[in-house]
Structure formats: C-alpha cells, structure tokens
Amino acid sequence: MNIFTPEYFMRQAIAEAQKAFEEGEVPVGAVVVVNNQIIAKAHNQTERLRDVTAHAEMLAITAASEYLGSKYLNNCTLYVTLEPCPMCAGALSWSKLGKIVFAAADVKKGFSLIENSLLHPKTIVEKGVLATECQELLQAFFKNKRG
C-alpha cells in the first residue's frame, strides 16, 4: 500500500496551515514534493514578515528552488490548502511547476477566476483534495477574526 497519496501530502500542507492559524496568519499551508519526498514546507507569513508577497506558495517555491539549486520545479508537485491567487500562479508558471494540487477553491481571489492560462501550459492541476477540511479551517479563522 502506498502511503504517499495526495491526501497524505495535503495533510502535511494542512499541518503548515495550522501553524499559520496559530500565528494569526490566514491559514494557508503548502508543501513541495519530488519523488514522494517533501523538499519544502511553508505557511503564510504576511503579517509576521510585513510582506504582502509572503504567501505559503511563494515561500515554498523559494525553499524548493534553493533545495534543488534550480529555479525550475518542473518535476515537482505543490500541495496547497487554498487555490493560489494570480500572483502565486504567475510565480508557479515562471517556476515551470509540474503539478499543483489544491484543496479549497478561492472564490474571491483564486487564479482560476481569471483563467488557467496564468499557469505554465504543462502544469497539471488537481483540485478538491481534502477541500472541506481546509475550508473549515479558513472559516474558523475568519469567524475568530470578525468575531
């Protein structure tokens, strides 16, 4: 039995999102995987770093590129708890990411609202893996913030 399923890796991304939640950040987590090995983990740090670009995906791209010694991630898969925004989708395109798997759709700011052409043409997209769990974490965060 293969334990390295999309659900397994998404749970690792959820663990990162939980860290963000505990730090008062929007709870988005991401992991980058190559050959069933996690080479980068990140969560949103926009508040901590006072940097609007410090999204989980951006930080994960940087860490993965550093690990591989390459700006291209064409053999990698990014697992992320929320659909990337257009900024992150553009960065993922430039990195030539092989595959993206996201959980919850972002109906307000997700890249697919514009169109999938923001991604590299060879990037495979899979969505909905553990979406309910990720959506519930986001809803709990915003309920606490508005609360």
**Oligomer category:** single chain
Number of strands: 5
- Rg (C-alpha, Å): 14 Å
Low-pLDDT segments: none
> Number of helix segments?
5
The structural class is: alpha/beta
Shape: globular
Average pLDDT works out at 94
Distance between the termini: 44 Å
Beta-strand percent range: 15-25%
Order of strands, main sheet, comes to 2-1-3-4-5
Question: Can you put this structure into words, describing what you see?
Answer:
It is a single chain. The protein is α/β, with parallel strands linked by helices and 147 residues long. Helices cover 40% and strands 20% of the residues. It has helices spanning 6-22, 46-49, 56-68, 86-94, 131-146, and strands spanning 29-34, 37-43, 77-82, 99-104, 124-127. Strands 2-1-3-4-5 form a 5-stranded mixed beta sheet. Strand 3, helix 4 (86-94) and strand 4 form a beta-alpha-beta unit. The mean pLDDT is 94.
